Amino acid sequence: SIERAIGRIGDHLKPTDRVSILTFGDRIRTLAAFVTPDAAGRVKLGAPSEWGTHTLLRDLLGVVLATPVVPGRRHLAIVFADGGDTSSILSEADVLDLAGRSEFVVFAVTRIATSSWDMASFPRAIVEHPERRPTAFFERLTALTGGQVRTAGAGIIDHPTPGSLVVRTNPDMIDGAFTGAI
Q: Contact 35/20 with Cβ under 8 angstroms?
């Protein structure tokens, strides 16, 4: 779960580091602001159904990238998004402009595949125009800030008996991606 991944991030931070946790859906909410890694590990995000049906991803990124930095501290933003933006006021160009002037390193953690863009998997338009890939925005953003796009596997496929296939949720779905960013 995302909460477990946040708790594990604390295992890789110094006690003097500070963590802020924001959620986004119909609105952007700050659940913790500049708290210790231990305190961040105890934050409850609530159910995704409570966040709303719209996605303010670019607006959230704008808020993060425009946050004043504390001199002498590292500034890392790990953004988990399992889909695209549906409702932001800010454009991709606005966010990329902020990213180019920000001191934050952004890691995007997503369930959208970043590789295997082949003809069998994606429409011809995406193959011919790579800038239309679902991760293209994340790739441009992280390149500007020195971060990376990390993909979290969404499922585990089991073959319990010959001829059967069971797909179940991967309990470590985002842990590896989050801790890899740290």
A: yes
